[in-house]
Every structure is written in C-alpha cells, then in structure tokens.
Design brief:
seven-stranded mixed beta sheet; 11 helices; binds zinc ion; Quinone Oxidoreductase, Chain A, domain 1; Rossmann fold; alpha/beta; single chain; six-stranded parallel beta sheet
Length: 335
C-alpha cells in the first residue's frame, strides 16, 4: 500500500488515503516520490478549475524521486535512477504538433497531476516521455521546484531574443521571479529586478540583480529606459496592470515574455507599434528541457528557496502557498 493526498471533488479538502501501489502500465514508469513542490497551478485541481478533470485526483507536478519499476516497452531507464516530472505529462510522437517537432504542444495535452495522478504521494506512474534525469548531487527537495518554477523561467529566458550582456528585467520576485533573476544573472545578462517595496532590494542583489526598481515609488518603464531599455522583460506576476506598466521600458524590438497568468492583460497597442515590440507567452517545456534546467542549475549554483512540509501537513502547506507569503516555494517531503 502507499499513502497519497487526494482531492475527491472540486473545492474539497485534502484527504490522506491509503491506496494499493499502482502497477506500471505499458509505457509508464513507477516513481518513488521523494519530494514534490506545491505550485499555484495546483489550484486548478483543488478548486475545480480544469474542465473535465476526473476526481479523485492527486495533484502535484514538481516531482523528484527515483525510478521504482518499469512498464512494458520502456527503455533507457533503470530502477534507482534519480528522476523528475514536471507540468508536461508526456507526448505521443504521432500527432501533427509532435511530428512538426512541437512536442510541448502534443495533441494529447497530458498534464501531470491533472490528466493523471501527480506527486502528492509516495508513488506515482508517469509516461516515460514525461520523465527527466536529475543531477546526482542535487537533493530532491532542491530539485522539485525547478521542475516547474525553474524550467518555466530558464527555458523562457534561453529561448528569448536576449543575448549575453543585454539588459533583462524580471518582473516580480516571488516563486518564479527569485529563480528568474538567478538564471538571468548566471546566463550573463544585466539584470534589473522589479518588485513592490524597498525591502526586496537586498535579496534581489544577492540573487544577482545589478539594478532594483521599486514599482511602488518608481515608474518601471522610465527606470528601464534610463538603463538603456530591456531586450526582454520576464513577466512572472499575476497582475495585468503591473505587466502593462513595464512595456514602455522595453528597448526597440524588445519582448515582453509572459509566464505569469493574470486573468486578463490589457495593453496599449501604441507601446508595441512605436518601437516594434512584441508580446509573447512561453510554455514551460518538455522532459529534455527539465534535464537541461536541472543540469544548468547544478552547474551554475541556482537554488530555489523552499519551505518544506511533510505529506501529513499537506493542507497547511497548500494554504501557505496560496497565501502568497511563502519564501519562496513550498515543497512536500515524503518521508
Ligand atoms: Zn507549476
Ligand atoms: Zn503528440
């Protein structure tokens, strides 16, 4: 038997239940979960915001653990190997987006902890195509948040038009932003962190920012222009007006890269037209992007700051994440 934390209906509380260990089905890997991060997107399960979601469901898509057993047809993995699973729940390799190389956009739209049970439990099954290899030296608690918050910021930045030496702004200094600043600095960009209040300045500088803009007392757009204009603004916040207030700080041909998800985003078209600026979203990435994120993080010394809870305290841990007060990611440790 194994213990998992499940949600049995929209808006229900977490219940810790015992279930039989799942037998790996063809093409899947059974993972012994060591740690699982709690992400804002887990509210999609908890609050019933994902159309057609089947309950009961075990949430969790920031999973670090070890390979426990292989389903038939799975090759290239062996029991005991350190692995992780993120938001992307695997791809089929046969649909049109897959055949065009856009594996992230696979028509099956599998999402970990939504389409199948995720990592808030001792064991889980994951499609082999969703599984990423983790660096040997990295503890599971450190690795887990990098599989969603980490990959999302790292993969967005490395696929952006910014080049080493360019000014990159990171809007927001929460779970995503505190990683975004570190990745941007380690990648060789000049980094401007934008957040509310003076008290976050020293943290931003510790994380590698060379400039700090307090959006409560300063205008982010004109401050960025004084620095020459940003090639890219990585927008991690969930407030549309805060994003809009930065667009004027983009350099000519600059890009506002949207990875935070406000309910809506209103922009003034002329701020785009006049300097040929772009607005672009970024999906987190697939399992190979997770491997690259974790390998870079280990090599460059990028760390998520975490608050750790045991599985028994899942409800408290989730509330802590939802409060927005966690510094900076909340992680469940399984033992
Ligand atoms: Zn997430
Ligand atoms: Zn596909």
């Amino acid at each position: 038997m194994m213990r998992v934390a499940q949600i049995s209906a929209p808006k229900a509380n977490f219940e810790i239940v015992e279930r039989p260990m799942p037998e790996p089905t063809p093409g899947t890997i059974r993972i012994k979960v060591a740690a699982c991060g709690i992400c804002h997107s887990d509210a999609l399960v908890k609050e019933g915001l994902w159309p057609g979601l089947q309950y009961p469901r075990v949430p969790g898509h920031e999973i670090a653990g070890t390979v426990d057993a292989l389903g038939t047809g799975v090759q290239g993995w062996k029991p005991g190997q350190l692995v992780g699973v993120g938001w992307h729940g695997g791809y089929c390799g046969r649909c049109e987006p897959c055949r065009r190389g856009n594996l992230f956009a696979c028509a099956t739209q599998q999402v970990t902890g939504i389409s199948f049970d995720g990592g808030y439990g001792e064991y889980m099954l994951a499609p082999a195509s969703a599984v990423a290899k983790l660096p040997d030296e990295m503890p599971a608690i450190d690795a887990a948040p990098l599989l969603c918050a980490g990959i999302t910021t790292f993969n967005a930045l490395r696929n952006s038009p910014a080049r080493p030496g360019d000014l990159v702004a990171v809007l927001g200094l929460g779970g995503l932003g505190h990683l975004g600043v570190q990745y941007a600095a380690k990648a060789g960009f000049r980094v401007a962190a934008i957040a509310r209040g003076k008290e976050k300045e020293s943290l931003a500088c510790q994380l590698g920012a060379s400039h700090y803009i307090d959006s409560l007392t300063q205008d982010p757009a004109s401050e960025l222009q004084k620095l020459g204009g940003a090639s890219v603004i990585l927008a991690t916040v969930t407030v549309g007006d805060a994003m809009n207030a930065t667009i004027g700080g983009l350099a000519v041909n600059g890009t506002l890269l949207v990875i935070g998800a406000p309910p809506s985003l209103e922009i003034t078209p002329f701020t785009l037209i006049g300097a040929q600026r772009s607005l672009k979203g970024w999906y987190s990435g697939t399992s190979i992007d997770s491997e690259d994120t974790l390998a870079f993080s280990a090599r460059a010394g990028v760390h998520s700051m975490n608050e750790v809870f045991t599985l028994d305290r899942v409800a408290e841990a989730y509330d802590r994440m939802a409060s927005g007060k966690a510094r900076f990611r909340v992680v469940l440790a399984m033992n």
